[in-house]
Amino acid sequence: MHDSAWSKDLTVEVAGHGVVSHTGSAVLRLIADNTGLTAGLSRALARRGFAPVHDRGRVLTDLGVCIADGGRVLSDLAALRDQPELYGPVASDPTAWRTLDAVGERERGYIAAARAKTRRRVWALISDRHGRIPLSKVADVDLGKTVVIRLDATIQDATIQIAHSDKEGAAGTVKGTYGHHRLAAWCDNTGEALALLLRPGNAGSNTAADHIAVLTEAIAQVPDPHRRDLLITVDGAGATLDLIGHITTLNTVHGRRVHYSVGFDLDARARAAIGHVRERDWQHVSDRDGEPRPLDGEHGAGVMELTGLLRTSHGGDELENWPPDMRILCRRERPSAGAQLCALEEADGWRYQLVATNTPGRQLDFLEARHRAHARVEDRVRCGKATGLDHLPSTLMAINAAWCVAAMIATDLLCWFRLLCLDDSSAQAEPKTLRYRLLHTAARIVRGQRKRKIKIPETWPWAADLATAFGLAFALTPI
């Protein structure tokens, strides 16, 4: 028999005052204001001769805060608007809608420039606090000063935005669904959303022009001097001559090193080359802890380089059109149950995966493990979908593209919140955990000495973390 004594004397009345909810989201608003993001967005969206009641930069910031807080539709702005004691005046839903409607292609460019300028200051603050920006780690080894940009455009459920109604740009996908197909670039070091392109659902996953456009915008978001040492990782959708050629030309800029690690097609020329590989040519691959895996057996795996065989094949140079410094690595492992295999793989019992890279030297196991870490982009996509990218609010493509801009701002605010204001386990928490523990905290606001004070309940398990976060956000020098 269950005990329900705890609720016997419990009643409910709508009569509270001085109580606010979603208190922790005010930290995100402080970060946006004190790093200069709000002011930058205001300048980006300013119109000569037009002075709206609600500054459009403020509206877009508040929409980003709302999405970071878990909002999925414009009406969720009520969580901020109906708590004027904490947030002051907040725009109405129609005003927020008009703000999104005003964000066209030109305005998106201005907003990207404002975000890049703010990111330069934020990365400087992160370096001041931690000594450097976070390191990207591979097989228990960090990549040093290298900034890793991960592009994701696979035709998977993670990147398909399902449309449940007739929306502009929605189309059928190869997965048999209906909606939009996103192409995004994420910073592996910080988790920030650097660039995003909303495309029709039938857009190709290997469209080089789209990859180049998103990559160009993403690199522009990386502050100097961090832009001088980059690694671009893409899955097999990025194995196009135009994209790899474009990345190769980036190395012609003096003082800049841009490496790539791209999934490559297991085509007829690659299968023929694998047929000439001797068993003793295979080398160990590293597991996630950097330990070597066995070469054979149920958990066996190996890696070797195919470049020589492809460059000097019986039919001539099979990679003649590709950049001369491109290397092809081949990984093999026992296939998992249900894996789709080609005739070669079915015959010899191994599953093969190819990687193209321009990184010279380095041990093959490290280069293979470095590419395998590209799978972390799926975590970024999942967190992005939990932060506004799982829902498009309009039937119009332009407004939905503007919504995606607000969602990227929300993702950045959560990343900056973790890196500038949190420590220990909270600094690694994903959006849903941050909301449960910190952003949705209820508190009281009391007035005295011409000031407002937020009083967080002492019994709240994460009260000290939230109080510290507020203190650090207040300490940021306003711009």
Brief overview:
The protein has 17 helices and 15 strands. With 479 residues, it is an alpha+beta fold.
Fold and architecture overview:
The chain starts with 18 loop residues before the first strand and ends with a helix. A hairpin with a 5-residue loop joins strand 7 and strand 8. 39% of the residues lie in helices and 16% in strands. It has 479 residues and is α+β, with helices and mostly antiparallel strands. Strands 4, 5, 6, 7, 8, 9, 10, 11, 12 and 13 form a ten-stranded mixed β-sheet that branches. Strands 1-14-15 form a three-stranded antiparallel β-sheet, with no helix packed on it. The longest helix has 26 residues, at 105-130. The protein folds into two domains: 18-110 and 395-475, no CATH class; 133-383, Transposase Inhibitor Protein From Tn5, Chain A, domain 1 (Alpha-Beta Complex).
Keywords:
single chain; 479 residues; alpha+beta; Transposase Inhibitor Protein From Tn5, Chain A, domain 1; 3-stranded antiparallel sheet; 17 helices; elongated
Sheet/helix structural class: alpha+beta
What is the count of structural domains? Answer: 2
Helix content: 25-40%
Mean pLDDT across all amino acids: 89
Q: N-to-C terminal Cα separation, in Å?
A: 60 Å
Principal-axis shape equals: elongated
Radius of gyration in whole Å, from Cα? 25 Å
Percent strand equals 15-25%
CATH class of the largest domain: Alpha Beta
Largest sheet: 10 strands, mixed
Uncertain spans, ≥5 residues at pLDDT below 50? none
CATH architecture annotation of the largest domain: Alpha-Beta Complex
Number of helices: 17
CATH level-3 fold name of the largest domain:
Transposase Inhibitor Protein From Tn5, Chain A, domain 1
The strand count comes to 15
